[in-house]
Write a sequence for this structure.
């Protein structure tokens, strides 16, 4: 019922934006499409006037429209028709900021806004980031350098505290940082867009921060960092009522990720019928590590090929004294092929080649803490193919030495941080109510590790588990310590 309501809401967004709306050509406002004239002031004047007159659509036809930051206002739709390209300036001084977040298209507290069409928003991200670096280095701009790279750079889209938002059909290309960031928005629809975000490092594809009522549907995302990311930046809010459906993702980090920031948490999330390929880290990562509550999560029909890890669930305690929680997670109908090598090898800004290496390929993992257990997880109709071939020379952790696996409560939550784990297929620690139904794990080559290891788990149930190495069934696929049914 909640997601039917969400569908009705997003349909009404489109209806409310179209009623009594007027169309305005960008050329009427003297906005030039030659690709060299800076149109920031004229575009902003057009947006302001349309909003003042009760709302409407600002239409960009074929051409390149150079601009710095523009601020979308209530009732305004920007339509980029096929062949229209909104081009971001490469001058850092042409960008504005809300609460430390710079972007090309911005909005704060606006209602009934949209960016639609078959056109493009292009960030010229590499040139812009390089110019930022030069300005920071000479002291013209105050900013933080991270490993010699600019830490704070403009997004393509940043909307904060907006309601009834549509982003449909467009292409977002070459930002200098995160592609799009929606912060504390309500009733957001992102549908059938294309994201090509490999111009620089830390280029997430789509970020949802503390939003309520979100539909992400039918999008293609190619990102040099996480693909679709849910974050919670404050304990006073959380991400809730989200539908992530029918998307295709390739990433040099994780494809779909809850975290890393999770102060408030994540509730009532559906992840349905998504496809992932050539992804460096996890196909799906669900993390609660900053004191928030994460629960009522449903993942169904996830198809992943050539990824570094299939499934990673993690509770941590990065904020001292703040216990994190995770419960009621259902993961069904998953087919995943884990890569033997680096899954994103050769792409622009690929994942870090020195990250937690050397190590063996990591298993699926459900890892809580002794005083913050992960509760009620079901894996059903899950098939994961692993390369196998684990090398015991890589700091072997055997089933007789499970205490060697570190807890890392304050560590950055990536599956690879544990380095060597004693299972090649599935590792479960500090959890209760974990159910395996029709789970199939296979290894292409022999591995010194056992397929499944459980440690400090209560209510562990197996209702169908098939583990094979080189096509042959494993006689004793599960090793358990301190585990009860």
């Amino acid at each position: 019922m909640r997601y039917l309501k969400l569908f009705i809401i997003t349909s009404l967004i489109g209806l409310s934006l179209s009623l009594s709306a007027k169309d305005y050509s960008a050329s009427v406002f003297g906005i030039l499409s030659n690709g060299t004239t800076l149109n920031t002031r004229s575009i902003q004047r057009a947006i302001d006037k349309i909003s003042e007159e009760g709302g409407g659509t600002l239409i960009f036809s074929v051409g390149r429209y150079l601009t710095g930051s523009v601020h979308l206002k209530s009732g305004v739709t920007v339509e980029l028709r096929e062949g229209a390209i909104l081009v971001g300036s490469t001058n850092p001084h042409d960008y504005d900021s809300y609460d430390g977040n710079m972007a090309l298209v911005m909005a704060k507290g606006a209602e009934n806004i949209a960016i639609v069409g078959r056109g493009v928003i292009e960030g010229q991200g590499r040139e812009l980031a390089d110019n930022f670096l030069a300005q920071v280095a000479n002291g013209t701009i105050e900013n933080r350098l991270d490993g010699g790279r600019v830490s704070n750079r403009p997004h393509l889209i940043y909307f904060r505290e907006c309601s009834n938002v549509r982003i449909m059909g467009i292409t977002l290309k070459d930002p200098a940082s995160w592609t799009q960031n929606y912060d504390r928005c309500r009733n957001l629809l992102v549908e059938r867009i294309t994201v090509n975000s490999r111009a620089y490092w830390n280029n997430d594809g789509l970020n949802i921060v503390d939003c309520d009522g979100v539909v992400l549907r039918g999008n293609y995302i190619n990102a040099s960092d996480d693909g679709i990311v849910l974050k919670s930046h404050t304990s006073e809010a959380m991400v809730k009522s989200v539908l992530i459906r029918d998307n295709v993702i390739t990433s040099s980090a994780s494809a779909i990720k809850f975290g890393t920031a999770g102060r408030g948490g994540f509730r009532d999330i559906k992840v349905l019928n998504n496809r992932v390929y050539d992804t460096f880290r996890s196909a799906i990562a669900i993390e609660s590590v900053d004191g928030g509550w994460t629960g009522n999560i449903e993942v169904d029909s996830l198809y992943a090929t050539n990824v570094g890890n299939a499934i990673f669930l993690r509770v941590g305690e990065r904020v001292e004294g703040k216990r994190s929680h995770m419960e009621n997670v259902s993961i069904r109908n998953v087919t995943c092929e884990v890569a033997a090598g680096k899954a994103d090898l050769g792409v622009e800004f690929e994942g870090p080649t020195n990250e937690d290496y050397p190590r063996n390929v990591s298993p699926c993992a459900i890892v809580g803490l002794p005083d913050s257990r992960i509760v009620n997880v079901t894996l059903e109709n899950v098939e994961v193919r692993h390369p196998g071939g684990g090398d015991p020379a890589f700091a072997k952790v055997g089933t007789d030495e499970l205490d060697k696996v570190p807890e890392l409560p304050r560590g950055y939550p990536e599956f690879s941080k544990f380095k060597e784990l004693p299972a090649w297929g599935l590792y479960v620690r500090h959890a209760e109510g974990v159910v395996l139904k029709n789970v199939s794990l296979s290894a292409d080559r022999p591995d010194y590790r056992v397929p499944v290891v459980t440690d400090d788990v209560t209510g562990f149930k197996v209702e169908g588990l098939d583990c094979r190495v080189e096509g042959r069934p494993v006689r004793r696929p599960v090793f358990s310590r301190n585990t009860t049914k």
